[in-house]
From TrEMBL:
This protein's name: DUF6973 domain-containing protein
Record domain DUF6973: where: 34-163
Domain of life of the source: Bacteria
């Protein structure tokens, strides 16, 4: 029975995707492919919103609105919260949350393969930060309730500046710190999924 259901999902998805999108599908991590198979009618919207969130975050990174840090900083927090807020509007909270979790599973796979995400290898605390910020993003919107994208951007920025999201603690030079302000050497982080980085409120200033 399970095998038959899986084949049905594959066939359904193949009808929904163009040849180019099917190639993209095959390149997804197992966790994201499974998400697509269980949400075939929401997958295209999710892809468009994911691309939108990355573009908006790239624009915010170049502006003075946040700290410009896309790897554990405010821009990183913004990307996840905005992504989830938009997904909640378009595909619902449950589907959005499960996609966010699938992304974090992919990050663990990236860590195991030592690939780079935003210039650094993902680790457990980054995943914890992302999942926390995802939940904040989900709380900022409602399904089918439209608001301007500009308004939502500032809503997320205001939440960051109010300290409602999480970022990873760093000093003024962008170096990671422990919760008691001890400098973490890069060498000590290599190959470690669990380390002594510290999560702080998103309005933290070194």
């Amino acid at each position: 029975m399970k095998k038959h259901l899986f084949i049905i999902f594959i066939l359904l998805s193949s009808f929904m995707f163009s040849q180019s999108n099917w190639q993209k599908f095959k390149k997804l991590s197992p966790s994201k492919r499974m998400w697509v198979l269980f949400h075939p009618f929401k997958a295209k919207k999710a892809l468009l919103i994911s691309n939108e969130a990355n573009k908006v975050a790239d624009s915010i990174k170049k502006s003075p609105l946040l700290d410009g840090d896309a790897a554990g900083g405010q821009v990183d927090a913004f990307r996840h919260a905005y992504w989830m807020a938009r997904l909640h509007q378009e595909i619902g909270k449950s589907a959005a949350r499960s996609l966010g979790k699938a992304h974090e599973k992919e990050n663990y796979k990236t860590y195991k393969e030592r690939k780079l995400e935003d210039g650094v290898v993902p680790d457990k605390i980054s995943s914890t930060m992302d999942l926390f910020n995802n939940e904040v993003g989900l709380s900022l919107t409602q399904k089918n309730k439209r608001s301007s994208k500009k308004g939502l951007i500032y809503k997320v920025i205001n939440a960051i500046q109010a300290g409602k999201l999480k970022i990873i603690k760093k000093n003024g030079n962008g170096q990671f710190l422990t919760c008691d302000n001890t400098l973490i050497l890069k060498e000590s982080l290599k190959g470690k999924w669990i380390n002594n980085k510290c999560l702080v409120s998103s309005n933290y200033k070194p």
